[in-house]
Amino acid sequence: MGHVKSKPVKGPGPPVQKPVEEKVLTREERIAEMEKQNVLNGRVFDPEILIEFSMSTLLDSISLQSWDHMFEAPTPYLHEPEVREFYYKMDLLSDGGVRTTVKRATKRGNIKRARLPKKFLRGEYQLMFEFINKALEPMIEKRNVASAADLFLIEKLDELEAINLPAIMLEHMHMVMTGKSAKHGIPYGYLLNHMFKHFEVTLGQGVPYIVKQMFTVVSLLECECVKRKGKG
């Protein structure tokens, strides 16, 4: 009598979805995708919150890095055409740097070389996370979980250790330019002003910031750095 093979019984469970493969974009395709993306301005500090005690550690660290002029008054302006040209003409270099041209001014930069939900971070650390998330490594996606890299930067800010901001920006630019979806947004709308000024790029009129693009008392409340005032 021959052996009869039994058919496997298919058990219950969710249908298996095949992973979607994303093609690597050409330069022209990437520019076309980036033209659909918003420029991420970054953030500056509302002068009214600079005297808050909960701001002291972050402000001390920013002062140590000599970043004061980049995140405080005077009013920053967004020069969107120049920012877009900066990215559209960008070449990524094998050493981790970038080379680009804005209105015929050429810039080359080089790099010198854990996860935790935000709600579990202490108040001032939540503020540092927001600073990293909105100013140092801005992205379109809303993030509520701190990565190992975020925690590393939070530790450096808290311990008042030097941070290589150009290296962070270059690494973030590489990530934005090599991501297959090209949907990370166009970062550093405000910070690139300092580079444009250094290379004497002739800029247009620009658009001034709005309150939404500032760290305000609302930001401190959301990060639990100050207590909400009771009614009455």
Oligomerization status of the protein chains: single chain
**Biggest sheet record:** 3 strands, antiparallel
What share of residues are in beta strands? 5-15%
User: What class, by secondary structure content?
Assistant: alpha+beta
Number of DSSP helical runs? 9
Low-confidence stretches: none
How would you sum up the global shape?
globular
Task: Explain the overall architecture.
Helix content is 35%, strand content 10%. Helix 5 (123-136) packs across helix 6. The mean pLDDT is 78. It has 232 residues and is α+β, with helices and mostly antiparallel strands. The chain has helices spanning 27-34, 56-64, 68-71, 80-88, 123-136, 148-158, 165-178, 192-198, 217-222, and strands at residues 44-45, 77-78, 91-92, 98-102, 105-109, 116-117, 145-146, 207-208, 214-215. It is globular, with a radius of gyration of 22 Å. It has one domain (41-222). Residues 1-20 are annotated as: Disordered.
Topology (SSEs and partners):
Elements: H1 27-34, E1 44-45, H2 56-64, H3 68-71, E2 77-78, H4 80-88, E3 91-92, E4 98-102, E5 105-109, E6 116-117, H5 123-136, E7 145-146, H6 148-158, H7 165-178, H8 192-198, E8 207-208, E9 214-215, H9 217-222
Parallel strand pairs: 1-9
Antiparallel strand pairs: 2-8, 3-4, 4-5, 6-7
Short description:
The chain has helices at 27-34, 56-64, 68-71, 80-88, 123-136, 148-158, 165-178, 192-198, 217-222; strands spanning 44-45, 77-78, 91-92, 98-102, 105-109, 116-117, 145-146, 207-208, 214-215.
